[in-house]
């Protein structure tokens, strides 16, 4: 595995435009009441930066943190930035009314508790005291992604107060200045007086009383002892030749030294404590051939200091001399006794004209210039060991191209938007400003998101276009031309603003992390070390053609060949026209062969082939050189970047937290990802040109430049395919690094999918990889070393031929479906790694877009790769359920769940059916798959298919579960026909069991499982079972459903049960009486314990009752009478359901349903007395009741069938009731007149006179009983009358009325009299005086009777 890429000494500028549309600068205005100075002096804009002392420490709250500023006129814009965390409220714009900020007029210093900003203007000085970050966050362990900036509370400072600001006294109008904070906390401002000399203003330490003090440093105060070596030309006279052009300050030991580079090219060093000049040196002494320079005032001279413990204090003086600017590096040497001298270290020359700014570090000078076309030029040089005086290149970003190339097949609007909103070319502020101009400044543009800004731009340009159109119709071509015209106008506007914002103002290099930044008017760009390969491709011609060696190889000869080869590539690159470059891009985008495209390009560059041929002659071993380049560009590695992504276990919590934030801020995200983008763009071009060159070699054949045929073969079969593959890979990386991300819910909105990946996944992997490789956390923050490492590792993570699959996973996790589809499309034809994983991802994209069938196709294609690919193995390995036997089956399970989540049952069925063929040997998996198929068929209403799947299931318990579900679902859907008609081979008993247990466990009225079971048995001609089911339902209805509806159903159930039994041969027409309520076996109940979990007592052996047809009929009649009762008297439905026959009779009698009551009595052989008593009572009530009682009576009378007797006169209800009673007595004779007796008893007990018909009918049945009844109720007269009549009857007068067949005679059989009763009567009559006549009558009649008996007896005896 290859590790870090080879770096060159050059750097590349990465702008790192952020996604934020605008930095929100808070305005703070300070007005000290001064008025503008006459003459309106204008200082140039300037910029600078301050790096925290601990910015290079991993465990510090200020790691990778700095403040930068730029000044313009009266304002200072300050911005605090960090590469590790996002700082909130980090931008402030300080407006100092009527003042101009001096060049070098901003100075920032930190103390233990504060960050102090000192600002000098031409009229005032200011001090801002801000809290130090380490004081704002007590703990070093800051875990938030966002932190407050030191500027958060800047609005709360009263900057007008004397503690913060002071007006410069007098008419001093300084032209430059510097400032410092002393050990004691005083703020000192050294200002260059226009008339020469330096004025130092001092503000007392913050929080102490005191006024501004002023010290003037003038040459007259130089100590006399120096006058011996002072040049007489300037001794004593106060000419402005000593006007300071550039000031710098350094505190050394107890003193503070102010260095002034003056207009007379001299460097003077003042001691602030001594208030004297302690050193003066002429800078022209270090300049060769300086004639003529002396007389020119050196207005462009600059001075910078750098201090390091090793070298002490170094000064660098830049002498701005036309055509030969020079940097002189000097070292300050203390000669003891307050005497100092300068030691010359190095002089460095530059041909560049306009120096904007330069920065001095203990080893290097970094300079930024602008050239004739106003573009930035940046270089740096090591001033210690540089014999050749060769500056190192820094490749600055060129401005966006002037013209946008629009292919014939491209839409102008789309193309322009793509260029404008690509992450590399324009800052949001340039686009916003252009938009304001385009809209003619009609409204302020608020803080828009990147997406909404895009929409606004589109609307603005299209609106402008529409308003310019006068004709209603024009051709497609004309419209296209118009589009191009308006979009290019908007584009030109953006270019103008981008150019203005890109104007370089300064340069800063962090002394701690060595991070170099270019400070521009509108943004900061970062300088990253350049990879050696990229360096070769980007090098400026004069450098490229003079280079002797390259770090890509240790062998000097191969190195020379590589350089020669790159020079040939430069010629190829220059020859490829924009048109051809576009064609080549298009070929890659449309997945055409890169080699074929290269051949087409080759045909179009014939004009330079001769030059290239001449160059090629210098390359001795072209294949070795190509291999070096290809090897260096190939990012394939067998190391898994970041391993498992966990930070090294050895790291402390603090370290882990710090690492978790390293390079995590939005600025760092932008920089890293744009660096990857630049690298891939550069290398894509490199590979493109190399491929064209390789094709050219092929065209020349083996004899010209290649040493024989074997080399040609190697070129053709190895190097060209490798180069072509690299080109495709880099094109892919270039594409994704510019591919905008769809919106994701994140704190920092990533702009591209690569930023999204770096933010969410990549950074953690990369940082942990870097940390594990080097244990010293300090070098982690060394910019030059670490940032290129991050970029390279990120590119490796994205490299499609590496085994890691984190990038597509991240896209999927963040719903970037379109981008993921495009990614898979682009790698499809040539990438042989993770093929199955890519198919799987594509399938998920299709699912998200609702294209299920395509998704299924992809999932099936991925299945073949499951065992081979890490991602798919991990995907299937995470299953918690009983793992299927093979990874492939686990994979199928995963996909099936995916399809289920999306709700595509048809596809689940399809895939599960396919998976079953794979699971031939695995019964468990088969069962699970069949269950799945069953479930989805059932859900879809495919009942037959669901049943089919159920029968296929090899696992009995699962089969039973499915069966249960089938029954329940079809019942709920009322698809009972299907349910009954399935054949249920080998499952018959289970179905019956399931339906029975459902029937018994559910509410009777809401579910019709009993009817279903009945239908099921009838369908199979099992009539006895059907009858049993209906009978059981009837029983339960009686118990549980106490309503008229329930009783109606009960009647129907018993009828159905009767029907069933009548269909069977008589000897088999019986059923087993179903058990009562709670004694059903609960399915799955413990045989030993009851429902409370207690051990149940010994099981009671229950007797089985057999019910025959007649028993059922009885039940039927009983239930019918219950229904009749409920129909006539609804409230009684609640009690009738479970009433026994006896209870039923009394209920019916109460309600007046005498027919039904009689019917029940007869069925169950019950005594009818209660019926007669009841009816008699009703008659009595009627007889004595009023009108209302009569009316009510008709309703119950109507319910009993009266034997129709033609009756002419209208009879009353009372008459009808009596009639009913008499008809019953007739219809239901009793053996001994029992019914009459009870009726009469009832009547007499209520003192109701007996109707004649009743007396006469009972006389015929049992006169003796009637007599006893009369006696019982003291009806003596009636009793006497009866005795008389009876005796008469015996004697032959009216015997037929008493049911006496033959009266007393010698021939007839014997007759008798109820003597006891008669004696009783006589006794009573005798006792009461009132009845004496009756007594006599009876006695006489008896005497007659006895006489006759005697005669008859005698006759009888005589006849014997």
From TrEMBL:
Domain NUP160 middle TPR as annotated: residue spans: 799-1063
Protein name: Nucleoporin 160
Cross-referenced InterPro entries: Beta-prop_Nup120_160, Nucleoporin_Nup160, NUP160_helical, TPR_NUP160_C, TPR_NUP160_M
Source species: Sander lucioperca (Pike-perch)
Molecular function per GO: structural constituent of nuclear pore
Residue ranges of domain Nucleoporin Nup120/160 beta-propeller in the record: 65-533
GO CC, any one term: nuclear pore
Domain NUP160 C-terminal TPR as annotated: residue spans: 1108-1357
The entry's keywords: Nucleus, Transport
Source superkingdom: Eukaryota
Localization per record: Nucleus
NUP160 helical domain span: 556-756
